[in-house]
Fold:
Amino acid sequence: MEYLNLGTSDLKVSRIGFGCCPMGGYGWGTVEEKDLKRSVDQALDGGVNFFDTADIYGLGVSEERLGNFLQKKRQHAVIATKFGVRQDSNGKTFYDNSPEWLDKALDASLNRLNTDYIDLYQIHYWDDQISLEKIFEHLDRKCQEGKIRFYGVTNVDLSKLEIELPKKLASFSFEYSLANREKESIVNEIIEKNRLSFFSWGSLGQGILSGKYDSSTSFGPEDRRGRSIYKNFHGDKFQENMNMLKKMELLISKSNSKSVSQLAIRWILDNIKSSVALIGIKEPQEIVDLVSTTNWKLTSEDLEYLDTISK
Ligand SMILES: NC(=O)c1ccc[n+]([C@@H]2O[C@H](COP(=O)([O-])OP(=O)(O)OC[C@H]3O[C@@H](n4cnc5c(N)ncnc54)[C@H](OP(=O)(O)O)[C@@H]3O)[C@@H](O)[C@H]2O)c1
Structure:
């Protein structure tokens, strides 16, 4: 496994991050509890120590399961969770970064995760009602209380921020993959200016970059990818992805013995040096496959080829 230190801290995380969105049991098709548990064990065995969840994933179910699965192995894991996305009584989603909600959400996460500290507490989405500076101040207080060790932001563009970033801010995250490079220049700009770690989410384009889907694929109502907002699986974008995957297969047949998903993840790790790739895991075999994306590098020719076909 490859590791990096989170931001400027001494907290070491694996560059393959176990995405716990499917662990919430909502919107990813069939997900079995026993497979998730075995996946967590396989991850730890393979050196993956970084787990990314959120209070909204399955409305707490993901955190609760992760807490159960880790139990006595807590000290071997680095847990990242998130707050700030809520649901009202009609199931409508809204953002809330208020200190009152943060206090409640954090205590609830600690309880569900069955732990007395969270390694990395992230602002899931910014509600734009309260300044980031104020939220950071409140998060600093939570660090002093010992409830969290570091904090991070996701889906927030820090490149425009005029303030000096706080010491305990360790990471930022955006959707990023061969299928979605929209945020690439912002990511590079933020990394150039600050010593923060970057986490890519949607690293496999929600699964399309596994190469196992084609035009005959249809998702059931219980799988979010059937909805048109999951662009990677619909319309022109789907076709573009299919064309790119064909070119990736060509590269594999010529010069590389890896799988398409391994190439897609290695490209992130090589393209953005201080990155961790987060991948949503449903089954043990998926994490085993991904552990093999570490301790080798793409050649500069392969990197250039992937760069060209994904632009
Ligand atoms: N901060 C944020 O706003 C935010 C937003 C989204 C996600 N995230 C985090 O990032 C993680 C990853 O993003 P994501 O789950 O949306 O998308 P993703 O990682 O691109 O795709 C996940 C899907 O890919 C498939 N897969 C995983 N490993 C595979 C392998 N080795 N071979 C083949 N297929 C594989 C699985 O689905 P199938 O097997 O069914 O294809 C899995 O559900 C999440 O779990 C979550 O922790 C954060």
